[in-house]
UniProtKB/TrEMBL annotation:
Pathway: Cofactor biosynthesis; nicotinate biosynthesis; nicotinate from nicotinamide: step 1/1. PANTHER family: LD05707P, PYRAZINAMIDASE/NICOTINAMIDASE. Its EC number is 3.5.1.19. Pfam families: Isochorismatase. It is an enzyme of class 3 (hydrolase). Residues 81-152 form the Isochorismatase-like domain. One of its GO terms (biological process) is pyridine nucleotide biosynthetic process. One of its GO terms (molecular function) is metal ion binding. This is nicotinamidase. Belongs to the isochorismatase family. Keywords: Hydrolase, Metal-binding, Pyridine nucleotide biosynthesis.
Amino acid sequence: MHEVWGSNPVLAMRRALVIVDAQHDFIDGADDTIEQGTHGAEIHPRVADALVKVRDTPVYHVHKGCDALVDSYSGFADNAYTKFTDLPRLLYEARVDTVVICGLATDYCVRATAIDATRFGFATEVVTGAIRGVDTTTTKKALADMAAAGCKLV
């Protein structure tokens, strides 16, 4: 059920920006894996600085990939769907209906997060100019997979 404010349905939309894997090592290209608790796992300062400039907008940091035995590409859940992050709860509590996704890497974590967003009932937009993949072939497939799942590529 969506709550409508006034007569303008556009005002009823609640959007959230989801930035996937904005850590030092991914952005700087130092590594394709992140070790928890290291400098490389910290949010990149350019991203942190940009988030500080967003006034009157809540910013949440959701941790994923905390179990060394189970891969966790999605910002919503691990790959086995046995453990879930706080992201779905935070979005539902904020009455978000649309998520806008950007980040790294298109063919792994962005793909998984975007597809899961649609599975969790969110309209999903992926900003193609603000994502980057690991490999050209798998990135093309990831874009096709996201579109087929109902994500809007913008």
